[in-house]
Q: What sequence folds into this?
């Protein structure tokens, strides 16, 4: 009996040592194991009463009017989720859906060359029509008119998508040094078309894409540049932006280095782009007393969405942080709202035009919703 106890104890110790070793020295295998069952969400978008969600499970299509996952799941596709590929983002164009799929392997590129794909799917049943291999890890895709822009870790591409099932690249940009082109949004001003990209720890970059074949940078705003109000921002990271012209609102989260230190800042960046030759930047911070404590890899807030005079940013187990933009130049922090009702760790957030807020779990496939149409 004593020998059996010793053997069990030794086996237990070896398992612990193995787990510690995998966690420290093999992040690929660690993530493989973890995401084999924790198939969390990465992105949410919608069209009328239909929402599309992307994550480690691939892509799912729901009826948004009365969302209950077990009843109103309309279609799903996980066939492309092989070799550490997951669904990162997407958008609708006519009868088709464009999905950015990328490797979850840490670092700049996947050493196996399996960085990502742009998938063209039929919107009705999520069947795959075409896939385009990529040299970089993709992030987000958005369409305006016949122009599709796809951002990624190192650069972005612009497509002519006048034939929605067969988009063609008409401009491709790769930064000379590694730069992350994360979430972005379009700006339409005086007949000109621009794209504003968040650059993770580097700030914001705005491109004139009026002639998409001759796209050019019109301004760069470092994240740690002195604020227009005279205050200094100690740094941080920005991963998503929305346009409410002449203002842009972007997420502001801590970096791995500043997380839970004196330099930790969490909130929203406000850019006044009425004069692109002299963009003004301020920050509206979330009080430390309302901060989340659980870590989600990329530090929250990472996603931002708007409905009428409110903006919402993802805020981990606190759900979302809410800001009032009745005065669009000066957003006011309103507090947090646990949309899940159970402190679930939240990642993507998205508000529909009809006033429903959808948020996705970081760990599971679960999608939560709330009617924000009557909020004051």
A:
């Amino acid at each position: 009996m004593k020998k059996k106890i010793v053997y069990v104890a030794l086996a237990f110790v070896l398992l612990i040592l193995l787990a510690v070793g995998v966690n420290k020295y093999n992040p690929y295998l660690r993530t493989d194991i973890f995401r084999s069952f924790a198939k969390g969400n990465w992105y949410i978008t919608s069209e009328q009463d239909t929402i599309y969600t992307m994550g480690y499970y691939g892509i799912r299509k729901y009826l948004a009017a009365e969302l209950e996952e077990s009843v109103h799941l309309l279609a799903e596709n996980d066939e492309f989720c092989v070799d550490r590929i997951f669904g990162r983002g997407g958008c609708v164009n006519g009868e088709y859906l464009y999905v950015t799929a990328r490797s979850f392997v840490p670092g700049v590129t996947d050493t196996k060359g399996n960085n990502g794909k742009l998938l063209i799917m039929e919107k009705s049943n999520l069947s795959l029509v075409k896939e385009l291999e990529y040299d970089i890890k993709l992030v987000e895709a958005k369409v305006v008119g016949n122009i599709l822009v796809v951002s990624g870790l190192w650069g972005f591409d612009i497509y002519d998508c006048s034939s929605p099932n067969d988009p063609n690249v008409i401009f491709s940009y790769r930064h000379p040094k590694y730069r992350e082109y994360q979430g972005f949004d379009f700006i339409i001003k005086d007949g000109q078309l621009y794209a504003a990209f968040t650059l993770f720890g580097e700030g914001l970059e705005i491109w004139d894409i009026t002639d998409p074949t001759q796209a050019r940078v019109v301004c760069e705003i470092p994240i740690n540049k002195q604020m227009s109000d005279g205050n200094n921002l100690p740094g941080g990271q920005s991963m998503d932006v929305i346009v409410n012209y002449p203002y842009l609102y972007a997420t502001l989260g801590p970096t791995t280095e500043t997380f839970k230190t004196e330099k930790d800042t969490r909130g929203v960046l406000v850019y006044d782009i009425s004069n692109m030759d002299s963009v003004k930047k301020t920050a509206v911070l979330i009080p430390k007393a309302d901060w989340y404590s659980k870590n989600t890899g990329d530090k929250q807030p990472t996603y931002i969405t708007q409905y009428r005079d409110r903006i919402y940013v993802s805020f981990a187990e606190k759900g979302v942080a809410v800001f009032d933009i009745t005065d669009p130049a000066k957003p006011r922090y309103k507090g947090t709202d646990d949309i899940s009702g159970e402190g679930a760790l939240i990642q993507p957030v998205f508000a529909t035009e009809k006033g429903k807020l959808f948020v996705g779990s970081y760990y599971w496939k679960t999608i939560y919703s709330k009617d924000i149409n009557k909020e004051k």
Observations:
- The mean pLDDT is 89.
